[in-house]
Amino acid sequence: MSPEQTDVLIIGAGPAGLAAALAAASSTARIVLLDDNPLAGGQIWRDGPQAELPEQARSLRERVLGHPNVRHCPGTRVIASAGPNTLLVEDAERGWQIRYDKLILCTGARELLLPFPGWTLPGVTGAGGLQALIKAGLPVRDQALVIAGSGPLLLASAATARHNGARIVRIAEQAARGAVAGFAAQLPRWPHKLLQSFSLFDRQYRTGTHVLAALGSDRLEGVRLSQQGNIVEVACDRLACGFGLIPNSQLGQALGCALEQQALAVDGWQATSVAGVYAAGECSGFGGSELALVEGAIAGHAAVGEHPAAQALWTRRARWQGFARALNRAFALNPALKALATADTLVCRCEDVAYAELSGHVGWREAKLASRCGMGACQGRVCGAAVQHLFGWQPSAPRPPFSPARIETLLCLEDISS
Amino acid sequence: MPELILDGRPLRVPDGTSVAAALALGGDGCARTSVSGQRRAPLCGMGICQECRVNIDGRRRLACQTLCRDGMHVETRP
Ligand SMILES: Cc1cc2nc3c(=O)[nH]c(=O)nc-3n(C[C@H](O)[C@H](O)[C@H](O)COP(=O)(O)OP(=O)(O)OC[C@H]3O[C@@H](n4cnc5c(N)ncnc54)[C@H](O)[C@@H]3O)c2cc1C
Ligand code: FES
C-alpha cells in the first residue's frame, strides 16, 4: 500500500495542534491532524459526558475540523518511523504510512507520577489523570477524595471532581507556602490566569504537604500524609496524585530532535534541530494552554513559509513564557519526595519491579537489562521519568514500536523495505 | 446509550463514556491483573501508563482511550 501524502503532518490535537492546524490551513497546504484520543482537544479541552468545554475550545475545534484542507485522524497513534519524512501509524482498524513535507509535534505533556508505598492500589490515580477519567464518565459522586502532588493542576482536578459531586477532603501541595504565595502574588500580571486560579482556590488546600503512603489491602482506604511536618492519616475513596508535568518528548527524541531540559529544543520559529520538524506546546516545555496556542500558531505559519505571520506572534509568546517560568519556579519539587519509595515499592508497574531491584545500579540501561524495568507496555513512560527523578538516570530514546502495535501494522514496514 | 458486555454482564452507559469509566460504573474499576497477580485500575487516564489495558472484542486496547459502543465485549480477566 503506498503511503498517504500530506504537506503538513501534525501529531497531537490539543491547543497547540489545533492552533498549528488553523494557522497552516490559511495557506493551501494539505494537513493531517492525528491524535491518539477519540476526540480532539488534548488535555485541558478533553471532551466527554462529564466535561464542560469553554466556548473558545468549541469554536477552535469546529473551525479546524470543519476546514476543507484538514483531515483529522482520531484514535490514531504513531508506531514507528518508516523512512525519511514518513511515519507508520495505527488506528483501531488499520495501520498505514503517512509521508509528510513538514512535521509539527504537538504531543503535549504527561504527569510526573512518582512511586510511593501503596500507589499500585486500585483507587490511586494521577491528579490530572483523575480529572481526565471523570470527564470521560468516571463516577465520583459522594466519594471522599484526596488530591496530592504539585502544581495548579491539583486545583483544576479538584474543581472537576467537586463539580461532579465528589467530596474533597484534602488537597496536598508539596511546595512551601512562601513559594505558592509568591506565585499567587504574581498572577495579576496575567489577568486571565488570575480569574482561572481564584475560582479554583479551595478550603482544603494545604501547602508543604505530601503523600507518604496509600493505605489499604485490595483497594485504597486512606492516605498517610506529611502535613507541614506532622504525620496525619485521612480516610478516602480515591487518591489522585501527580507531581507536575513532563514534556512528551519521546517521539521527537526518536526522530533525532535535540532536547533541552527534557523538552524538545526549538528556535524562534518553533523549529527543532531536525530540518522540517517543528515542536509546539508542552512537548517543548511546560507553559499552559495560552502558551501552547501561540506556539502552535507560530509553528503552523512557519511550516507553510508564512514567516511574517509567525513573527507577529513573538511578543505574545514571550508574555506567556514569563508565566511559565514563574510557575516552574514556584512548584519546584522538594528533595524529600525522592525518599517516598521503600525497598518493596514497585517502581515499574508493567513488570512489577521493586525499588530494591534498581537502587544498586549505576544507570538506566544496566538497571533495565538486569530487572526489565521500563521494558513493559508503557515503554518506560512512567517509570523512566520516575527513575530520572529518583536516581538522575537519563532515559534513552525510545525504540519502535513507540506504542504496542498489532502485527499487521508492523508488516506495513516490511512492504516498503522489501 | 450504548450497552456493552463487561466480564459477561450487560451494562448500559451514557453516550461518550470511556471504557475506563465503564469499568467503575459496572464493576470494581479494575482493568487487568499484573504479572505478580495484583489487580490494577486506570492510573494516568490519558494513554500513557497502559494500566487500563483490557480485552475488547478479542483485541488488547486502552480502556481510557476507547469509547463504549453498543455490543462491545470487554474482558478484564485473562
Ligand atoms: C492530565 C492533564 C490534565 C490537564 N488539565 C488542565 C486543566 O484542567 N487546566 C489547565 O490549564 N491545564 C491543564 N493541563 C495542562 C495542559 O497540558 C495544557 O494547558 C495544554 O493542554 C497543553 O496543550 P498541548 O497542545 O501542548 O498538549 P495536550 O493538550 O497535552 O495535547 C497533546 C495531544 O497529543 C496526543 N499525543 C501525544 N503523543 C501522541 C502520539 N505519539 N500519537 C498520537 N497522539 C499523541 C495526546 O494524547 C494529546 O491529545 C493538563 C495536563 C494534563 C497532563
Ligand atoms: S489509564 Fe493510563 S493508559 Fe489508560
UniProtKB/TrEMBL annotation, chain A:
Domain FAD/NAD(P)-binding: from-to ranges: 7-292
Listed transmembrane segments: none
Keywords of the record: Oxidoreductase
Domain of life: Bacteria
Matching Gene3D superfamilies: BFD-like [2Fe-2S]-binding domain (1.10.10.1100), FAD/NAD(P)-binding domain (3.50.50.60)
SUPFAM superfamilies according to UniProt: FAD/NAD(P)-binding domain
InterPro entries, A to Z: BFD-like_2Fe2S-bd_dom_sf (IPR041854), FAD/NAD-bd_sf (IPR036188), FAD/NAD-binding_dom (IPR023753), Metab_Enz_Cyan_OpOx_G3PDH (IPR051691), Opine_Oxase_asu/HCN_bsu (IPR017224)
Protein name: NAD(P)/FAD-dependent oxidoreductase
Species of origin: Pseudomonas fontis
